[in-house]
Each structure stands twice: as C-alpha cells, then as structure tokens.
C-alpha cells in the first residue's frame, strides 16, 4: 500500500461542491494529465468540452435526468470519442478515412475512459471530488446538438469537478476473487461470495440513507438488467458514423 493506491481506494462520487472555483490553469493541468493516459495506436481519440455557459449547463441538467449538480459543480467537462480528428489527419495526407468499423468505436471509447480516469485521479490528488455523468446519454442527440458535435464524434459521459462539500463513505466493491480469475474464466463460488457481498452492500445503503434504502447489489443489478438500456443509442451512433461495419 502507498499513497497512490490509498487515493485510488478512497474514491467516492461527489455530488455536493463548495463555491471554490477551479482556476483554468488547474483544469488545463488536469486535461494534460488525461492526455498522458495510454492511447490505442497513438490515436488520441478524446476531445474534452468544458461547458461554462449557464444556459447550456441548465439544458444538460435536463438531458441528464435532472441531476442538478451538473449545473452546480464549479466545472463540468464532457468527454467525447473523436474520430473526426483522425479523418482530418487522413485529409492532411491526401487519404480517405475508412470509417465506421466497430473496432474504431471500441478503441476511441476506451481512449476516452482512460483519459477521463487520469483526469479524475489527478483532480482527487489535488483535493477535489468528481462525479461521472453517464446520464447525458439519456438525450444524446440533444447533447450532441448543444455542443455542436460533428460526424464521427459522440459524447461518452460528463464529469462534475469541484471541492467536496460532503464526505460520503466509500461504496464497497465486489471481492477481488470474484473479478480476478487465474488462467481461465470460471464462476466457481461466485454465487456464494456475491451473497456475502450483498450483505455489506445492504448495510452500506442502510447506513448511508439512515435506513431509507434497503437493497443488495444483486437486487440492484437484476432490477437494472431486465430493463431496456437506452435503445436510442445504436441509431444515434450509426448516424454519427460509428458501428457501421
């Protein structure tokens, strides 16, 4: 255990922030830290949009399902998978991009996730808190229009940043032996281990909500997985030039 691992293990989503602003120079430094993340074949397929305009922020609150902290956080960033820049690189070299491959969608999306995680860790190392906002995909076409996103660019998620005005407990994660397998995949003992884990999650929710929420991890996941998951996404991504082949 060292300071870096302790920082990683102390991550919580922060949804209440103080009024302390984040200097632009600091935000630039965080984005530079994001750029230092691994990138598939050096494509660097992530673009970050810092949303300052209050009206746009307000509309993004609506798009995210009413998550008010999208509008209240000192900084809000939208992380986009960007293959448009790769198209530009082709044009600069008198080549025509062969776009639309599923592999390109995967590599660009992974690039964004790695980039954003670097930003988050860097922010937390400076005493800030973050909250990822996947809810912007609820109305992804509207978000794309608000941010003037061109073809071959799509918003993957948003990120609230600021100095915490709350101190929530760390949410318990699955036991390591459920997620770490040796040599091949197997689920031997997973059901029993997850049943034990469910008890800790139930206790976490009871403590966090003062007894107002009583739910296990498996109950929460089963309730989510029987529902449709943003079925509009496929058509939107195809319209943006992704997942065509």
From TrEMBL:
Cited Pfam families: Nitroreductase
Keyword tags: Flavoprotein, FMN, NADP, Oxidoreductase
Segments forming a coiled coil: none
The organism's place on the tree of life at top rank: Bacteria
Keyword NADP appears in the UniProt entry: yes
One MF term in the entry's GO annotations: FMN reductase (NADPH) activity
EC number annotated for this UniProt entry: 1.5.1.38
Domain Nitroreductase positions: 10-163
Family: Belongs to the flavin oxidoreductase frp family.
Name the record gives this protein: Oxygen-insensitive NADPH nitroreductase
Organism: Amphritea opalescens
